Amino acid sequence: MSPPDLSHISTWVFDLDNTLYPSDVEVMSQVDRKMTDFVARELNLPHEEARKVQKDYWRDYGTTLNGLMANGQVRSGRDFLDFVHDIDHSVITPDPQLAAHIRALPGRRYVYTNGSMKHAENICHHLGLTDCFDDMFDVEASGFQPKPQRSGFDLFASRFDVKAPESAFFEDSIRNLKTAHELGWTTILVRARPGPRDEESAGPEDHPEHVHYAVDCLKTFLSTAKTRDKAA
Ligand SMILES: [Mg+2]
Fold this sequence. Notes:
The chain is of the alpha/beta class. The chain has helices at residues 28-43, 47-61, 64-70, 77-84, 96-103, 117-127, 150-160, 174-182, 218-224, 228-231, and strands at residues 5-6, 11-14, 108-112, 135-137, 167-171, 186-190, 213-215, 226-227. The mean pLDDT is 94. The chain binds magnesium ion. The site of magnesium ion has 6 residues, from loops.
């Protein structure tokens, strides 16, 4: 099989969670539990009911936070984000290989996350990726219009002057890649490893039509991809 041709790409956009680290690293499972705790506390609900509200909001509003905000059930988005991202980061280990691959990509490189800036900084710090990106864009920067909302993508694109035909987006979420595809970006789905996974992440067999490349390992993909300087 010929290597993926990304020689037209000069803007590299990465989702954070379950994309820059493998899905079996216990980060989102911790965040997920903290979200249930938050909903239970704020809405004064038993754990089981809080969990249902959390998941219903995720499905209906894009994120649990957006559901809480739309229903006037949270004082500020930041309260929620600070609470749910207060997790044990020792489960994340540095990934110097990934850092080298990302640094070698020609052009501009960004993180685009539905989490908070503090969360993105913590994760990147523990992965050893802090100096790999030109900038990061969090859910506050998107005006709490999380992926997959088109309006958030538009804000991201205008903030960094992103031109669709030159942009590649790496994500573990199929629905987030759909918007990127509609915008004309090159889409790369980073699939979860076999086993239990975040409900948003794609599984080992998934390769929907709006995804240009579906990969099981981000590092392998980046090491084999033909990029602008490698193509010369
Ligand atoms: Mg993700």
